[in-house]
Fold this sequence. Notes:
By secondary structure, this protein is an alpha/beta fold. It has helices at residues 17-31, 44-59, 74-81, 141-152, 160-169, 179-188, 205-210, 224-234, 247-263, 268-272, 288-300, 305-311, 318-340, 357-371, 396-400, 405-415, 436-451; strands at residues 35-41, 63-69, 89-92, 108-112, 124-127, 194-198, 275-281, 286-287, 344-345, 350-353, 378-383, 387-393, 419-422, 426-432. Strand 7 and strand 8 (286-287) form a beta hairpin. Helix 4 runs antiparallel to helix 5 (160-169).
Amino acid sequence: MEPFQSSVKMLKDIIDPEFYRLLKEGAERILKNNYIRVLAHFDGDGGSAAIILTSALRRAGIKFHLGFIKSLDGESFRQRIGEFPDIYTVVVDAGSDQSRFIEEYENVCILDHHFFQENPFKGLNINARQFGIDGTRGACGATMAFVMALAMDEKNADLLPFLVSGVIADKQDIGGYTDLNLTLMDHYGKNLKTVRTLNFEGQNLTDGITYSTDPFFMDLSGKPDNVRKVLDSLGVSPDKSIFDLTEDEKRSLGEFLTARLLEQNSGSEGIKYLENDIIKFDHLGFTSKEISTLVDGNAKVGMNSVPIIFFLGDQSQKEDMINNWRIFKTKLIEYAYRAYKEIYEESNVRYFYAPESEMAGAISGIMMLYLLKQDKPLIGFNVGNNDTKVSSRGSRRQVQKGLNLSTIMRESAKEVGGSGGGHDIAAGAVIPRGKEKQFVETANRLIGEQLGRPTI
């Protein structure tokens, strides 16, 4: 049996009937068109979802145009949808909360997993949260794209690698798959080759640790000479692949790196990410984590289309795709070290300024998981010419205590004339330039209220 196929049950047999009905309705609307516009969120999850949807459309003989959404404020979203009002548009990994700004549009199908406010949208808004699915851990944008692709044709089950890459990009794999992600993996991926090993990408350990940002190792990430010294001291060849390590080598290296993470304030959530179940997709030439980081890294340097073109079959893009990934990793590591030295403290939140809007979220994730104490969420600002992009990150323990950054971003942005939203553990906003301090003051107060802390 093929690793991506099920011998008996189909999608309709394993998900909520109303969920399946909506997906089939969306699939029928898509398939009756000979040209579709796809708009995906501008990140690793959105890029993975785009690969799934464009692959499914091409197989169905439907021409398509693919675009990416950077700004999720209401006005920008409405303008983007209104560019081609007569073309059927599929929005993935965004759009549910923004649908209130395009209520009259009927020829739009939204596939999303973020928090949203109900509204009388005339198109199709298919969101995992409508069916009791945890959109923070149990379904991402690529998940929603995958189930839509299955509703179009069950043969699209072989697009599962890009569901996995989206899950990893949204860090929904930490601690194991749950909810809809688990259901789909159990059903369509039961024969995959999975190896439990150190959570690195790259051809060898030197590259794997040098370019590692998840996890991020102080004084090792971005510093190949230091990496080689550590590997030499442990008696581990720097040219070895993670798949060729002996159990003793894996244990000694794992213990050293765990100690490094503990020294730099990493909490249990970050330490769990040191080892993971890595899936080898031999037919694609990359592991699950490598696909995810290639898609995300290219997106972060503005080259979203390169990995999509490659995974649609154009092998000539491979070298550019990998070079873009190296550029992204080098910049991200440099920015993380810089931001770590320039953290501002409030009673209930920390914040910093990022040099690029596409990097703010990634920097926030690194510092929240691996470099800062786990007592406060973190906000990153990227100040532009007219507005400021905001990214925020918390921890699962903070969420368990009541933190909801989606609410924090939405209410704090509203206070200063902007808009925001996202997940409880990670969310973003767009606000007018110059309102950063007022935004922080509001966020600090609201976080204190959520977590039952005083605002000093």
